[in-house]
Amino acid sequence: MGDTEREIERTYESPGRDAALPDLTGAGGVAAVLPQGVVERDAVHYDTADLRLAAASLTLCRRPGGGAPGWRLELPVPAAAGARDGIGMPLSDTVPAELAALVRSRTRDAELIPVLRLRSSRDTTRLFDAKNALAAEVSVDTVRARRLGAGGSTAEWTEVGVARGPGAGPALLDAVEKRLRRAGLRRTAPAPTAVRALARTRTATGEPVVGEPAAAVAVSAGDHVLAYLREQADAVVAHDPGVRRGLPDSVHQMRVATRRLRSAFRTYRAFLDRSVTDPVAGELKWLAAELGVDRDHEVLSRRLRTRIDALPADLLLGPVRARLRSWESVRRAGARERTLAVLDSGRYLALLDALDALLAEPPLRPAAGAPARQALPGRVRKVHARLAGRVGRALALPPGRERDLALHHARKAAKRARYAAEAARPALGRPAGRFAERMKAVQTLLGDHQDSVVAREALRELALQAHAAGESAFTWGLLHGEEAARAERLERELPRLWSKASARKLRAALDG
After folding, report:
1. Model pTM greater than 0.85?
2. List of residues 6+ apart from 348 with CB closer than 8 A
3. Distance of alpha carbon 57 from alpha carbon 316, whole angstroms
4. How far apart are CA 196 and CA 85, in angstroms?
5. 339 near 243, Cβ under 8 Å?
């Protein structure tokens, strides 16, 4: 993968053709303002014919010269408002395969073609703090945009960009913004320059409008469920590049989105035609399982390393850490390659297409037209009742494997109840939020219990391997005992926690 840099930037425009910067000395602790000169920039932006990248606020361009020749892909960072990752690759005649892969969840089988040429004169100024550290970089760009292809139109404007330095906080951007506003500049929508340029040069009446989509008004139960489904489907696609890049937590977040989709299909099946949703849910189950292979190994390994690090040195008998590393390497060998193969597979792309088709023509049943305040509480209470039954059965069993399995099933039901409440929260408000928090607490406790069950199985395997190699199995046995004791504490704590999560008042609150 090419060089990557994260950028947090705000953009402003001047009502006129020119944008003169005010004096920024003293704004947010700025001690020095140093002009860097003017650079001519020229870039050709690539997208699909229907502008799928621009619709998602992604940009891909080829710069033949002008200070930084090469290819550059810019991606919004999920859950980090205003942040974008820029990935650079050497100059070539065609789109680099690495960059094409990072946008495949958006483009699918569509070809990437030149759609826009942007030329600009960039006048850059750097702002430094009292310690001579870079606080921000301010650029004044005179932009000239030309839509490529038949009948392409042009546009020209001046904009100011303020990119935060590596050690600066949001307060610096706020202070600079105050100075810019006083000078007559206005902040633009949070979209890349190329996306705004495509909107300015839009000529075909049938072409989609790129930029921030208008928020839909959700009234019926079906409206709310569909809004939730769209949010989770977008999350699957948005986290795809992070999984491919190996970014922390990206696999987990993508997997959570697939689970939330499946859970919504099941919880709100009264509103959706199962003949349409069941096949998609089956494919989502496959994707979650594939993503879980490496993720589950990672979580387990981190737990075991943490437990080992917490032990006094005199209780680490034998090559404990070396044994764990060897065990990890065998279990995780080829896991990343397998994950990437899944994301490049036709089956995965077909799943994304199926989700798009389902959301484009939602298979709503008549019950979906009911008012959300009336229809959603009953669905949430139903999954809660399912959870109550599973918790009750688990607590009635004696400690052992059968109870462990029952608690594992209860954990799945708690997760589903939490997701059901989260989906209903926009309609039901704070009561649904409190309900979701209680369900999350139950899910967390049961998840920790299940992690302990899995850890004990792994520790037994490690002890057997150590014994077979002539090593001491003492430490593995000690850790196994600690995990068993932790599981017992969690089982004792569950009734108290469940008494709060199962309270009649909590369930009744959903009705308002």
Report:
1. yes
2. 287, 342
3. 52
4. 18
5. yes
Q: Count other C-beta atoms under 10 Å from residue 94's C-beta.
A: 10
- C-alpha dist (Å) from residue 512 to 67, 70, 222, 374, 432: 60, 58, 20, 10, 10
Q: Tokens 């349409």: give the residue.
A: 276
Rounded-to-integer distance, Cα 344 and Cα 387, Å: 37
**Sequence-distant (≥ 6) Cβ neighbours of residue 80 within 8 angstroms:** none
Please say if the pLDDT value at position 233 is more than 60. yes
The one-character DSSP state at 18 is -
Q: H/E element holding 292? A: helix 274-309
Name the residue among 26, 73, 27 with its Cα closest to residue 53.
73
Cβ neighbours of 129 (radius 10 Å): 18
**Of 124, 102, 120, 346, which is closest to residue 240 (Cα–Cα)?**
102
pLDDT band at 295 (very low <50, low <70, confident <90, very high): confident
- Alpha-carbon distance 471 to 464, whole Å? 10
Cα 53 to the chain's mean position, in Å? 17
- The mean predicted confidence, pLDDT, of the chain is 90
Residue 35 CA, chain-centre distance (Å), reads: 37
**How far apart (Å, rounded) are the C-alpha atoms in residues 235 and 462?**
37
Q: Are 318 and 475 contacting, i.e. CB atoms less than 8 angstroms apart?
A: yes
Which of 51, 41, 152 has its CA nearest to residue 106? 51
Q: Pick from 432, 433, 415, 436: which is nearest to 511 by CA?
A: 432
Per-residue pLDDT for 409 more than 90? yes
DSSP character string of 30-59: --EEEEEEEEEEEEEEEE-TT-HHHHTT-E
Stated as kind and residue range, the H or E segment containing 139 is strand 134-147
- DSSP SS3 for 19: coil
